[in-house]
Amino acid sequence: MRLLSSSERGASCSCLTLAFLMLLLCCHITSTLSQKSESALTVVENTEGGEGAGSDDDGDEVTVDEDEEEGDLEVVQPTEEWQTLKPGQAVPAGSHVRLNLQTGQREVRLGEEQLKYWTQEHREEKESTSFTPDELKKAMKKIKEDLNPASRDTEQQDSVSSQFRPLEELKRDMAKLDLLVETDVQIMRRLLDQFNSSNSTVQQRLSILLELEYLVHQVDNAQTLCSMGGLKLILEGLNSTDFRLQESSALVLGSALSSNPVVQVKAVESGALQTLLTVLATSQAHSVKKKVLFAVASLLRHFPFAQHHFLSHGGLQVLSELFRADGRGALRTRIVTMLYDMISEKELISQAGLDPALDASHEERVHQYSKVSLQGELLEEGWCSLVPQLLESSDHDCREKALRAMLAMAPVCLEQYRSDRSLLGSLVSMRDQYQGMVQSEMILGEENGYFAEIVDLIDALKVKMTV
């Protein structure tokens, strides 16, 4: 046996020491791997292609299979972002845990099932549920107020009181104003007393008539005014020497007569028709004649009894003189319109009288209209030659009304129409003029427009004259 040298003995000792250390390390690793704690972590393979398998992950992803006994451990609430786990911290079940190989620290985030329901809406809802300290103070204050209804009622009463004036103060103000609520009847009574007072000035009476004209548009008020004696005062206003009172009185009378048979009867019985015709024949003011014509037309409309008295008192003669004297033409159009209305009314009633199913009231109206000899009066007063003069006007409305009246008067005026050589030429010229306007209407999509209607009236009159 050869004895080892000192150098060989040193090397052999070093190898034995290294081998012993390696053996101890292997035993420690084996013992560590063989042990399994209650919160053991298992390395899993990410087969879903989630964030765990992405290029941004720095370590293997693990999933907690079992919940660790919490005890006094701090439980971390994971989010959708990775966050570092500190020693002694626990995580809920279903969370993803990984070991970051770069930092050597464990990280945790929400699991796939949790992320599936962790949408933007849930995040906003969670963020919205957080409260600031000021909001919490206000909420606590409101809870105290709700628990104390007496203080809340007091505050509400104070708020209402600040918006409205006290009742006693309102009563004092109302007493100072001395308000008086009047009915229409009381108002008309007061106005008539003021109008009849000798102390009333012309301006005050004009204001009174203006108020009355507004009130008598209502049927009941007009009838009440007559029963109060107001009709007499209005007729006195028509006889006034002040043309302003005449004009206002005629306007009130015409408004009261419109579509009001009761007032029409009372007006005829009070002599209103004679007064109106007198004013038409004697007044010099154009505005007065205009309002009086309105009152006459309102009195005669659908009232054959008044029409009969109108003709018997020379009404057509007064109108013919007024027609000839009117140089501006505005009164002419009103007169012709009134005559056309009277002719049309009688014609419609006469045609309706042929119906055997009419009752006694209709038969009476037919009988009343039969007493109105309007056609003969028109022929005698020269209206067959007066109405065609309106065709010379440049106003379309004036021409239209003249054509309608001429057609209505054709049964008695046709011979005079034919004898007037210039009339047929005027109709032909007018038709050519309006035919161009009709073409313009048709371009605008109006097949049966206003000018087309005028052309139809011209054609109808030409047919009657040439047959």
UniProtKB/TrEMBL annotation:
Please give the Gene3D superfamilies that the UniProt record associates with this protein.
Leucine-rich Repeat Variant
The places in or outside the cell where this protein is found are: Endoplasmic reticulum lumen
**Compositional bias ranges of the Acidic residues kind:** 54-73
Cellular-component GO terms for this entry: endoplasmic reticulum lumen
Cite the residue spans of the region called Disordered.
47-75
Primary residence = endoplasmic reticulum
Nucleotide exchange factor Fes1 domain spans which residues? 150-224
The molecular function terms of the Gene Ontology recorded here are: adenyl-nucleotide exchange factor activity
- Protein's UniProt name: Nucleotide exchange factor SIL1
Native organism is Scomber scombrus
